Amino acid sequence: MRFPNQRLAQLFDALKNETLPQDELARRFAVSTRTVRTDITALNALLQEHGAQFVLNRGAGYQLKISDVQRFNVLQQQTRAPLRVPRTSHDRIRYLLVRFLTAAYSLKLENLAEEWFVSRATLQNDMADVRDWLGRYQLSIESKPHHGMKLFGSEVALIQIEQEQPDSPLIVPESLENGLLDTLQPLLQSSFTQHNIRLSDEGERYLRFYCAVAIRRINEGYPLSDPQAEEIGDDVRESAQTLIHALRPLIAKPISPAEESWLRVNIAARRIQDIAPSAINADDADALVDYLLSFINTHYYYNLQNDPQLRADLLTHIKTMITRVRYQIHIPNPLLSNIKQHYPMAYDVTLAAVSSWGKYSPYTISENEIGFLVLHIGVGLERHYDVGYQRRPQVLLVCDSGNSTLRMIEAMLMRNYPQLQVTQCLSQREYEARQRIEEDFVISTTRLSEKEKPVVVVAPFPTEFQLEQIGKLVLVDRTRPYMLEKFFDARHFRIIDEPMTQSALFRLLCHQLEAEGVVDDAFYASVEEREAIVSTMLGEGIALPHSLGLMAKKTVVYTVLAPQGIPWGDDTAYVIFLLAISKNEYEEAMAIYDLFVTFMRERAMTRLRDSSDFACFKTVALDCLSRL
Predict the structure, then answer these.
(1) pLDDT in tens, 139-156
(2) Nearest-CA neighbor of 8 among 33, 34, 42, 31?
(3) What's the pLDDT tens digit per position in 430-467?
(4) Can you give the residue range of the structural domain that contains 248?
(5) Is the model's pTM score more than 0.85?
(6) Lowest CB count within 10 Å: 124, 347, 575, 625, which one?
(7) Is residue 82 part of a domain?
(8) Cα distance between residue 363 and residue 326, in whole Å
(9) Are 229 and 346 in the same domain?
């Protein structure tokens, strides 16, 4: 089935997984409710011959009703066929990407221009966007006179593209044999099950795609020739051997030892450890966990060193993380921006600890890897420093995105619905194997068949609508207007309506705080050092500069409104909150961060920026908080 426009395709995907009302759909797609109704009518016309319709249930929303399961299953198995001749600049750029990513030879723009019925000059203009897009994945295009252009870079970039854009037809339709990914699925599952190798659905998808790319590469005469000498466990080695044996019928040429060695590395980098911390033989992982927890305790006064669950989670994640870092295996973290916004306090604490450890380590920990660590640290902080909850309803959590994401979702549910008791966490496969569900209801990140108990589908970071569906009567009161009264005041409020650099702003604010005795002279240098590590831009034009560690003598939030904007790395900040947090009030720092997250969720930057004075700013801030 081909959709007339991208919005219809996105609307179809959204309503396949959950029931949504008109208002929520209008918010998600930034259209009117009238447009939503028009799009639903168009979708139903397309779905009529496929045995399904979207029906409006009063009080609930649009729900998918399947009248012919067989015809609808056929639709589900089909891939959306891309247009064969691109007509717009957007389509041409996509098709150029496909050609460069899948061609084993040089390409000439003259040939493509003739094939697509456009001028060479038109394609030359499109190539600027193509080069920019490929540059994000460290891929480059080299041109040779009379030969054409060819793409150079690591094949890991192909897997990264496929992971970050799984719905994009940039690779699979033209680069892999039709049905190869489906053929590989049972082969991988059998090999991993036989040798007790546990993977998340995302990890298994990665390895399927890795094997598919390797099969094409070997068959075309480009085998790897650089074997790794290091062994990574007997179970991984035996699993790789079993898988290599299963792949031989699909490969027309011999499989080199280097191919098997790299397959072992990738399995080890993606597996989920299920053993107890005492059984993990990884000195580097133990040392890193000890250092991180000790640094957090020393500099931020959060004692997480006696949390066995956190230590186990960090050990199992860091063991595979070190393997990835050692072999420069990059994994995307599609939730990184959400992690920064939803766990800003945990992000800063973890970033400071990892950056300090990095000074004594040969490894460079990427921001994506730090994001995964933040989820574990954030869970530990909430477990020990946000207590007093009652737990009543029992819920089963189904998540196939890995251990860190599962812990993050569990923590978010506990934060929003402290009455909930998560009795068990299962994968989709484990859930489907169950005959019945004992819990009151199920919360899942993917659509499931109901087993006499209701199933609530949520995103990794649930929307407000999804949170309301889980339990309108158990919502946590997150309004904290007293935080504004305690830590915000007119003396530490400033409007800067003139050009100013970031460093000049830091110097101006820090010198005032130093003169007032709030901080000492080391605070300014620490703020500059923190900003140099990773930008403190929270998003939506809101920035949260602060020091490394708790260096203030009392907690103060210095609010700056900059209508003209202040350059902030690659972005521009319009609302800046300089945080000076003292060790005596560190527990309340989480609540301060919650205020900024609320401003983000309410998209309040423009209203805050346009405030004429502190009283106006405070009114806007209180209005945002009252919506929770």
Answers:
(1) 888 888 877 888 887 766
(2) 42
(3) 888 888 888 778 888 888 888 877 888 888 777 878 77
(4) 180-270
(5) no
(6) 124
(7) no
(8) 7
(9) no
